[in-house]
Amino acid sequence: MTYPKIGAVVCDCQGEISSKIDTDLLFNKVMELENIISIKHVQALCQEKILTSVFEEFVKEKVNAFLFIGCSARSSLKFPEKKISFLMNLYSMNPSMFEVANIREQCAWIHEKGEQSFNKAYDQIRMAHIRLIHDEPLILNSVIEDKALIIGGGAAGLEAAKNIAQVGLKATLVEKNSYLGGRIPQIRILFQSENWNGKCISHCVGPVHINDTIVEPSVSAFVNSEIETIEKRDGNFFAKIKKAPEYVDPDKCISCGKCAEICPEFAKNDFEEGLFIRKAIDKDFPMAIPDSFNIIKEFCTECGKCLEVCPADAINLKAEEKCFEDYFGAVFLSTGFEHKSLGSLPEYGTKEPDVVTGMEFERIIDHGLKCPSDQREPDHIVFILCAGSRAVGGKISSGVPYCSKTCCATTMKQAIQVSNMLISARITIIYYYDIRTYERTFEALYNSAQSIGIEFVQGNLESIEKNSNAHSEANSGTGTEFDLNKGLKIKLEQLGEQKSSTMEDYVFNEQGKLEIDADIIVLASAQTPKKGSDSLAEKLKIPLDNAGFPIENQPRIFRPTETFVDRVYAAGASTGPKVVQQAVEQGRAAAMNAIPRMLNKNLNIHKFANYIDPETCVNCRFCETVCPHGAISLTGDGIVMVDQAFCQGCGLCQAVCPTHAASLTNFSEKQILEQVDVAFDGLQQGEPKILGLLCYWCSYSAADFIKKYDCELPTNFRVIRTRCSSSVHTSLLFEMFKRGVDGIIVGGCPVNSCHHLHGNYLSDRRIHLASKLMDQLGLDSGRLIFDYIGVADSKILATRVKAMDKKLRELGANPVGLQQQLGDKNEK
Amino acid sequence: MKNKIKIAINWAGACGGCDVAILDLEEKVFDITSIADIVYWPVAMDFKRKDLFDYDDKSIDITLFNGMIRTSEHKEDAQLLRKKSKVMIAFGSCACFGGIPGMANFTDKKGVFDCSYKDTASSFNPDNIFPEINVKKKSGTLTLPSFQNHVNTLDQVVDVDYFVPGCPPTYDIILKAVTIIAGYADNGDLPKKGTIIAGKNALCSECRRNNSMTSKVIEKIVRPHEKMIDPDICFLEQGIICMGPFTRSGCGSTCIDANMPCRGCFGPAENQYDQGTEAMSTFGSAVTTGQDDYIVRGEMLRPVNSIKDPLGTFYRFSLPNAIINKNMKDGK
To answer: How far apart are CA A437 and CA B284, in angstroms?
Structure first.
């Protein structure tokens, strides 16, 4: 091992530091530390001139590691760690090789001048220094491939592929269906946007959007294809793609339709949501791209008639499945949505053919609006909003808990379409708590729907069933006179105050019940993740939320479409309910995330990455379980491996590993303990030693903002900035007690805000368990606490530290440390 | 024939299982007697403590010492045997790590006495009579060894050369120890001081269920009697606490082959601090429903709360050897 040649800088911060801490004395003491080959004392390092001259001298002196003594690497507005990383790169030093002793925010700003605060500052420097001594330059050799894999060729996927291709990178688009465009061609009339109440006909804009993408020379689009396997290899994604046999060569096919004309076999058509059929050799719909016929093998009898009539010799019934594999630098999940299946909920009557979903109704509209059961023209069409959505409280088992946000507007759109197509038909919309047509377009649609006489009923659906009086004598019906003889009956229960519908056609009876007859019932059901997207997520190891959508990486407010796995992006309805324009936006956003990464080819600046020692690893795979970034997997050779390119350095693996085989480079357990060993050297005898293990982003910041929030911290508090609250193993916490620490405060991100998905929860659980043991061992469990401490929670931190300080003064020194001091083996 | 080496076998705070394990070697025990003379084995042969005093220092070649150190007598025996022997082997989990009786370290002498002589339902002790070191009777003064406050491992009391773990050490491990003895008898060769005569890595490395581990979380902890245990799938995978990842290998997975999870008698593996803190870190992380979005804290903690007794579960054999190895009586 080569030891670093450290260049240190003591910064006065124009008096902000030097007015409280004697920086001249510090300077002299730091000079004595191991491996310091150069040391500068500056007024303010952040001033460009000073900075340049310091670093130029460092380069001359062959400095290869940088110890900065000044402001916080996390919270400094002028000299944050990102800047330091860039500087290190600029001056050809490895960007792993720096540490910062934060003596401004966490010392000078919050303590009075004196021996205590000086000693604390020096201890903090020693901690940063000892850590720097054992830092290693992290070098990653992986090169990011210039090819992106886009899974799902709908609105979002197409947009992503196009943008990737337009900058000269390659895009491989894999689509499960036989056509591109996803849901676009299924929906006859599309909203132009949420902000502009215009419409587009999908067979106008759809093919243009699709062709704009696939004509790009570096886009390869594969239909009828699926991802067989996908895994991470050398910083990239290695995928095997399976393409169904091409019985009709799309290159030769001229879509004349002669084959379909002669084909005797009918087939199910998924494009039509199964409501209308096609031939075994056919196009799903005329405008489908690629413009080629295809054969659905399970319905084909291989009679050979199509072969005889094909003028282009395009048909080969013996075609075989093809597989190919490739490396990709980025993966896009744009797998779209499907409607929440309500089949298991008998109250929705989905067994009745005339009860349809919103998407099925789109297809019915496109085919001239007839009842699916008997091709009658419907007299009464009833839409039911929130079917299987917003299922909370007592309804929790009857659907998804969320609002799909698009269904209200889609329903208004469809209702208006119906009113234009069938002038005499009646339209009723049944809603649950409220109508949620947000923004300009959708609210305008709602207003139109109200003004053209569409009936709105608020009620809780009790059941939908076949009307036993249908087509019988018109005398025994309930409800209004219009409702006789309709095929379906809806039973409603009154919700809230409203007793009658908007036009007063329907009135709830004394018992709060109402029955409405209908010809077609459209269930505006929830958008849920596409079937099979969960297994894809499992292969890529991206975490999903309870509803099955990918969770975006934190801080998600600034990282839309990024999943927890580096360079896996999720766009469109695969991330949650969307309208087409939003899906396009996301496809473009995702591409913009990926493009700089792929153009740079090199991996981002990494300082922390996990390594698993195969010598001591026992393949328990718990690291893989907790890894939020999908960086760990079991290889074919049965070895648990980290792909460091995907590691985001949280150290959750380090804390779960039973054999300490998993170790975080530049935040190793050895480094942590060495920091602990020097942390309290300057502390007066008898003062409680309180150690804060504060998480990188949130809790550490809270300590930086102590002054801003007018709080106070005692001088006997020292901080280690941990990668995540969950980087530190329980055995290490106990070892810290043994080494004399009196109290430990572990701080993690607030609930739902952990940068590593669940590090804060894991920490909470581990420390909860540890305190149970401490109770059993007679060590006061108040010596070890965990709390969720956000950036703005400086008060919570201050309160916790102060309370602990008080408690520790009552308890006295930690007996484990005392026993160690006296010598455990004194009984020999 | 060469001179035979001299072996002593001693029994301190233990159940006797270690001695039985040696006898369980059956005819292999003669392998020992062919190369060694047993010069002290109070549990099996007619030796008295007095005989020990008479031996010259370092005149015994190897001492196999089983049992933990609880009383002044245990300690004296240990010190005496150390003085008389060239090689001291801590034999069995009690001598190595404190063993099952080591769990008493969650309390102290007073706690043990109160429990044994006063508080248990079957105790009738209205006069609060407890064992004492000296009791004067008409016929003279009776003395008993003193009872220390806590259990110690052998190496906390004397210098130990080798460790043979196990509760009791398994047949194969004892044979391994015998091989060492034989090697010493042959040519005086000995392994590196401090060697633990067992495997190096954690037990999982030799477990035949190892490849059944998936990367799933443990959603619920169940106890072995609460479910039908699949004999081929990793216990952890089935929600049953197994100490395998926190325990040194070398036992041959005998419990696991009997479809019972490892309880940890071989002590911590190399690189591990102690069994309990290691296990708590792993289980604290991995025992979860895995649904971490919009969850309430109580629900989140529920899975780990099902671990009722971390000390008894994780330190069953090794509390006196742990980082925090006895009741600290913090603030008292």
So the answer is: 45
